[in-house]
Structures are given as structure tokens and as C-alpha cells.
Design a protein that fits this description.
There is one protein chain. This protein starts with a helix and ends with a helix. A 6-stranded parallel beta sheet has the order 3-2-1-4-5-6, with helices on both faces. It is of the alpha/beta class. α9 packs across α11 and α11 packs antiparallel against α12. The protein is about 50% helix and about 5% strand. It folds into 2 domains: about 190 residues, Rossmann fold, CATH 3.40.50.2000; about 180 residues, Vanadium-containing Chloroperoxidase, domain 2, CATH 1.10.606.20. It has 13 helices and 6 strands.
Length: about 425
């Protein structure tokens, strides 16, 4: 069983049999715009004409909450009176509240209280890229709240652009994040054309968009996975062979990551790789450079300077690659994968720890081959830790190994020419 027609058609095109779509619905008798509560909005510090953005769901890193925060800050630049209300709880709530003291956290709400909170908002921000059904989009629209979500997966299956929501288009290649361009007329967006927008309830819905709607332009560029629907929509079920091969490779990549992450959930394994990860942040390499200077004088200083220069180049290259590729972390793309230590940034490709470890090891062994017994096992542990801790895919680690080796080779060659 699959949650969307999009995924159903893709799997059928890949040769899977008996793929059945399991639809979802919400009770529109319990969720209604009529439940909008002026008193609740007043408690949030919102006036009648203020814009209230709302997020409902688990407050966790895999929900891509950073994008919701950045989007709201862009709204605030247009509407300083805007408020951001968070309904739900989760491991990221405390850090989010600490970093954003102006946000309003209402905790977990259920039943009539949840419906009241939904209806009292104006704009539902839903940045998650890993939803199975995305029932909250149906609940938001049934409550008359304009919804902003990715144009893929569960959100695409249950929404119609313009009629009740705005889609974030997921481009296939990212060069940079485009400027946000939120209109000043965002406030009334949740109230326009509710009679003609779909009161989403299972399969019984109208596909007619309203005659008048706000125009939202310049959505931020975001990373996306391989398109699931075929490019030639005139030929349903057609998926190019290269897409099928890519899908299989991605599935294997993610499968290995899931298995490694489950193994890493064991206490002793998790603690070992967490320590290795912390040392790989730089502590181990800084200590190595210092030890070389102390025990080998000027020769050690020359080696340490070579390592430091290689590290600066590696850091610059790694940051540029991450900004260009913008591949989400495994735990952000797959709910089965849990991160065991906090990530240093949002994106996955390539593995910076592995890239630096490989480059440092190759350069250091060129000066001190006898360090192989220490450096090779440590570098291997760093590489494995990235997958085990749920922070990188195996392909991220393999690519970083290749990039680090190439960088070290260029660095050694350049050093030989200069000397």
C-alpha cells in the first residue's frame, strides 16, 4: 500500500505488482473555519488584522523546521506584526524556543482544541519533505487556512495549487537560494474563496480554483529527490530506464543507511561512534598537528602547516559543494533514520568529516608513514560513523573519500613543486 497516486504509478512502472493506494480523509464537521477564535488570537498577541502563521506537528529536525523559521522571518520583514504559533511537541522544541523567543508554543492539542487552533491561524507552513500522508494539510485546508507546502509527495496528492494552497516548486538542480518575495497582501489569503476551495474530505472534492487569489512569487529554491512522476504525462506509467536505475541506486543507498543506523542504535556502538565523530570535528587533527610540532621540531611544523593549508582548502571546497548540491540529511528524508548526534549543518553531500580525515591522513602519511597504524583505523571509523549516526548516506562518504584523496594528491604534488 502507498499513500499517493504519484508513488503508485512510479512503483508500477518499475515493475511492482498489486500496488494499492490508501487514501485519507478528515472530518469537516469537526474542522471548520467557523471555529476561528478571536480570544485565542488575542492570547497570541495577534490583532484582528494580524497575520498568524501556524505549524502543527512533531517539532523535530527531520521536519525541516529551519525552512519554516527562515520563511517566517521573511514574512516578518513584510509584516512586522506577524506571529508564529507552534502546535505540538518534540525533541527540537526547547532549542527552537531558545533561539526564537518570540515564537508561541501551545504544546500538543487534540480534538476541539486542535480544531480551534487550526481555524485561528491564517497561513499553515508545512516544510516537511518526509511525510507519508500529510494529514495536517487536509486539516489546515478544512479549517480554511491557506497552506504552503512542497509540490511533491503527500502534499501534491491532497492539494491543488491556487485553490487552497501555494506550492514550493522543487527544482532538480540547485545553484543558490532565491530571494523570498512574500506579498504584503498575505493576511487575507486564508479567507479567500473558501466556498470554492476544496473542503478536503477523501476523494469528494472540487478541482475548480477560485476566480481571485493572491499571487505568490519567488519561492525559495529547495533540494528535491528524483521526480517520481514520469516526464511525459501523455504516456501514463512511462519512466525512463535511467530513472529506474537511479531509483534502485537511491533505494540501496538509503537501505544501507537504515541498516547501519539501526545497528548504531545499540548503546556501546552509539557511544563509540559519537566519540569518534566528536574527535573528527577537528580535535584529533589539531592534537596531531600540535604533537608533530612538539616531537619533531621544524620538520613537524612544516608537516603541520601542510595539513593546515590542506584543511582550509578542504573546508572551502566542502562548503561550496554543500551549498550547490543541498542534499537533505538522511534523518530529514527518511523517518526510519534517527540522528544519534547533532549535525553541524543542514545538508548531507559530501561528508565533511570523511573528506577532511582522508585528506589529512594521506598528507600525514606522506611525512610519517609509521602513523598508518593510528590514522587509517581512525579515518575508517570516522567514515563509518557518518552513516551509523544517521548523518550521511554511504554515497556521501564514498564521494568524500574520493574528493579527499584527490585533494591530498594535488596538495602533495603542489608541495613537491614548490620545494
Amino acid at each position: 500500500m502507498v499513500p499517493t497516486t504519484e508513488l503508485q504509478e512510479f512503483l508500477q512502472a518499475c515493475g511492482f505488482q498489486r500496488v494499492v493506494r490508501l487514501a485519507r480523509a478528515v472530518d469537516t464537521a469537526q474542522l471548520s473555519p467557523a471555529l476561528r477564535d478571536a480570544g485565542l488570537r488575542t492570547a497570541w498577541g495577534a490583532a484582528a488584522d494580524s497575520l498568524v502563521a501556524i505549524h502543527v506537528g512533531r517539532i523535530a529536525p527531520e521536519k525541516n523546521l529551519e525552512l519554516a523559521v527562515r520563511s517566517f522571518r521573511a514574512i516578518q520583514r513584510q509584516r512586522p506584526d506577524a506571529r508564529f504559533v507552534w502546535v505540538g511537541d518534540g525533541p527540537a522544541r526547547e532549542a527552537l524556543a531558545r533561539a526564537n523567543p518570540d515564537f508561541i508554543f501551545c504544546g500538543v492539542q487534540r480534538g476541539p482544541e486542535l480544531a480551534r487552533h487550526f481555524a485561528s491561524g491564517d497561513l499553515f507552513l508545512f516544510p516537511s519533505r518526509s511525510e507519508t500522508f500529510g494529514n495536517v494539510t487536509l486539516e489546515a485546508m478544512a479549517s480554511g487556512v491557506a497552506t504552503v507546502a512542497f509540490d511533491s509527495g503527500a502534499a501534491r496528492a491532497s492539494t491543488w495549487p491556487g485553490a487552497c494552497m501555494a506550492h514550493w516548486p522543487p527544482p532538480t538542480r540547485i545553484s543558490s537560494t532565491r530571494r523570498y518575495d512574500w506579498p504584503r497582501t498575505t493576511q487575507p489569503c486564508a479567507r479567500w474563496a473558501m466556498p470554492r476551495a476544496r473542503r478536503c474530505c477523501g476523494c469528494a472534492r472540487s478541482r475548480s480554483p477560485p476566480t481571485s487569489m493572491p499571487c505568490w512569487r519567488g519561492w525559495p529554491a529547495v533540494e528535491t529527490t528524483m521526480p517520481l512522476s514520469p516526464p511525459d504525462r501523455s504516456r501514463p506509467g512511462f519512466v525512463p530506464a535511467r530513472w529506474r536505475r537511479t531509483a534502485r541506486l537511491r533505494a540501496r543507498d538509503r537501505g544501507w543507511c537504515v541498516r547501519a543506523n539501526r545497528w548504531g542504535a545499540r548503546g556501546a556502538v552509539r557511544r563509540y561512534f559519537a566519540v569518534v565523530s566528536r574527535l573528527g570535528d577537528g580535535v584529533f587533527w589539531y592534537a596531531l598537528m600540535g604533537a608533530l610540532v612538539i616531537f619533531d621540531g621544524m620538520a613537524g611544523l612544516a608537516a603541520s602547516l601542510h595539513l593546515a593549508i590542506t584543511g582550509v582548502v578542504a573546508l572551502t571546497l566542502y562548503k561550496r559543494l554543500k551549498r550547490w548540491t543541498r542534499r537533505p540529511r538522511p534523518f530529514a528524508a527518511d523517518g526510519r533514520i534517527q540522528y544519534q548526534v547533532a549535525p553541524l549543518d543542514e545538508f548531507s553531500f559530501p561528508s565533511g568529516h570523511t573528506l577532511h580525515a582522508v585528506a589529512f591522513t594521506v598528507v600525514a602519511l606522506a611525512y610519517y608513514p609509521w602513523l598508518a597504524a593510528l590514522l587509517i583505523p581512525f579515518t575508517a571509523s570516522v567514515a563509518v560513523s557518518r552513516v551509523v549516526l544517521g548523518l550521511h548516506y554511504p554515497s556521501d562518504v564514498l564521494a568524500a573519500t574520493g574528493i579527499g584523496s584527490l585533494l591530498a594528491g594535488v596538495s602533495l604534488g603542489a608541495g613537491a613543486l614548490l620545494l
